[in-house]
Write a structure and sequence with these properties.
The structure is a homodimer.
Chain A: H1 9-25, H2 32-39, H3 43-55, E1 59-62, H4 66-70, E2 78-81, E3 87-93, E4 97-104, E5 109-116, H5 123-141, E6 148-155, E7 158-159, E8 165-167, H6 179-184, E9 191-195, H7 196-207, E10 216-220, E11 226-231, E12 234-236, H8 258-261, H9 274-285, H10 289-313, E13 317-321, H11 331-341, E14 347-350, H12 357-375
Parallel strand pairs in A: 3-6, 6-9, 10-13, 13-14
Antiparallel strand pairs in A: 1-2, 3-4, 4-5, 7-8, 10-11, 11-12
Helix pairs in contact in A: 1-3, 7-12, 9-10, 10-11
GO molecular function (chains A, B): DNA binding
Pfam families (chains A, B): HTH_IclR (PF09339), ROK (PF00480)
Family (chains A, B): Belongs to the ROK (NagC/XylR) family.
């Protein structure tokens, strides 16, 4: 705290730069006069800071507006944030597909691509597929790899801070994989790896079903469900990055394994066999009693899993995503049971981003990383929307 | 952010006061020289600030140390924080007892008292009992009621920010009770009301089994368990104050009610009948098969509840408190099951504070409130411990 009163001039310069950059990104500030008014800084300070940002390539002078040029006198100089000064990738590496989204520094998506991959593919093959998708997306958008400022990745499993997959049973060869290091060979910029449900939670909060709440639980529903939560707008990863990994909940004091949940025979379903699962749901809709019982079991399990998350965390909003979200009849029983048993039931909605949620969240995490560098000053000032 | 550069002199004065007060409370700073060194402030600033704190009654000049007085020249002036400048109460209002702890501004306990109360007592009677206990504690410690700076209260139920009990089924007449308002009639200082398990979590972190961790779940085990959690050292109350209220978890997709869990007959146990519960546990130890089965059910339920909290939140440490914590055989099966089913099992320990946990946490919350006023400056600077 003592430092706050010390008056470090370089710290002040950085704070002022962050303030001005933030105002320029915010849209309606384009002239020195605008910036002076919005930031509360003096005109000479604003001019000096803008000069520095232009040298750094983050700000550019733009043409005066039509109307203004025609007015009397010299038009005011106008500036804009250069979103194209850097690019970001959000990548999903899932059991069945890899996908990538590309954006500029403003987070607006300017490229996308995906490829299917077998759930049995070894890690090397899966990473090859990632490289192919990324190369394709960059080529089509005409963006040089060297222009990437950060890459975010969402993938199943418990992910360490350095991007190593501590435990990831959903993908072959995933547990123990130094995924961050492997990807850093392909990219010269920072690579942030995050659990897929966590990434999806961030995505729904950014531009999905949860933009109006800072306290959410996102459930990636499936045969082995995972969840991600935001508390006060911040991702809650848990002490060891395992928060929301509720796959084993039903095993605590119960007998049913997930593979048997939706099975209509004595044979378990493969946990990733979405095709078989979809067939069971279709059969149930047609009135097949055995399939209906299986669907009932599946929904009970989902209710129980979501209920546990809600009772433990007490979010304002629950967002249901993942493949189960596309299946009929999941929301009504969920809402009904939560209303019955939760002391303060949350709202329950379906994901708006659907399949794009994980890659979108990964992109947002990459953007967060870059914005921290652009806007944060020793953790004391963080300018986010 | 612009304000940071504006140089508000009164803001600076407040920051400096907080810094100096914090250093004085910290123990080893007693002289102007100490304070100048530790805070990084100039000697004249430190002198001015100490002067102001003495006027405010928070700091007092103390006698020079023995050795120093004998040295050559005038001994350096010494100062100390006046913990006795104000007092705090931590109160537990539970189903069977009310209890109160009294401390000075340093949080050191200087008085304690408790009384039994019937679980069927109406709200007015319970509050009367609270007033009796408080009057008794204050009188014995010789502390005037007017010297109280804040009162913390821990009680079962979901508690609103203003101290109203939104839902509290454990105590008669508790749901809807404006508990904060009722108690503010007895005290002229701020009254902070908190859920009992939340208060206990704060207590174990302050001076119990969780002083070495900032990411904990405290489980108030019993027939209707509740939990409180700290995330990054901060109490996680949930969006509606209901986080950790996992009493209904077993009902989501299950059939057993808590009252039947430990029953050895077809008659349910009263959820608060600790005596009957203790007898069941005693019978089980003597080899009674039916009691053993009941205890087994109870432990399975606890494992499941704690498992849900752990999977959702991923704490570093789980602290088991409440009456069940005193019963044999709870920890080993808990640890074993969590190790089997959690991707990253937490440490599991018993409460160190036992019966005192809720009142201790309530006291800490009162202390937090006062420290925020003493040390915080518009939420930008918070100096704790």
């Amino acid at each position: 705290m003592g430092r706050l009163t010390g008056g470090d001039p370089s710290l002040l310069r950085r704070i002022n730069s962050a303030v001005v950059l933030h105002a320029l990104r915010g849209a309606d500030a384009h002239t020195f006069t605008d910036l002076t008014r919005i930031t509360g800084l003096s005109r000479p300070t604003v001019e000096g800071v803008v000069e520095g940002l232009m040298e750094g390539g983050l700000v550019v002078e733009s043409a005066p507006e039509e109307g203004e040029a025609r007015r009397q006198g010299r038009p005011a100089r106008r500036f804009r944030f250069r979103a194209e000064a850097g690019h970001l990738l959000g990548i999903e590496i899932g059991p069945h597909r890899v996908a990538a989204l590309l954006s500029g520094l403003d987070g607006r998506i300017i490229g996308a691509g995906s490829r299917e991959v077998s759930e049995t593919a070894p890690a090397d093959e899966r990473l090859d597929r990632v490289r192919t998708v990324v190369a394709d997306v960059l080529r089509r958008a005409g963006v040089a790899r060297s222009n990437l400022r950060a890459v975010g990745v969402g993938t199943p499993g418990i992910v360490e801070a350095d991007g190593t997959v501590r435990l990831g049973t959903a993908l072959p060869g995933w547990t123990g994989l130094a995924l961050g290091d492997r990807l850093r060979r392909s990219f010269r910029c920072p690579v942030i790896v995050e659990n897929d449900a966590n990434a999806a939670a961030v995505a729904e909060h950014w531009k999905g079903a949860a933009t109006d709440s800072d306290d959410i639980v996102f459930v990636l529903a499936g045969l082995s469900p995972g969840a991600g939560s935001l508390i006060g707008g911040r991702l809650h990863r848990g002490f060891g990055g395992a928060a929301g990994e509720i796959g084993a909940l039903h095993l605590l004091g119960r007998g049913v394994t997930p593979e048997h949940l939706l099975s209509t025979t004595d044979e378990p379903l493969h946990p990733l066999d979405e095709q078989a699962v979809t067939e069971v749901f279709a059969l149930a809709r047609k009135g097949d009693a055995r399939a209906q019982a299986a669907v009932e079991r599946f929904i009970q399990r989902l209710v129980h899993d979501v209920g546990a998350l809600v009772l433990a965390i007490d979010p304002e909003l629950v967002v249901i995503g993942g493949w189960a979200a596309g299946l009929d009849g999941v929301l009504p029983p969920l809402r009904e049971e939560l209303a019955r048993f939760c002391l303060r039931p949350p709202r329950v909605v379906l994901s708006l981003l659907g399949e794009a949620a994980v890659a979108t969240g990964a992109l947002r995490l990459a953007l967060d990383h870059v914005e921290e560098q652009l806007f944060a000053v020793d953790g004391t000032v963080t300018a986010r929307r």
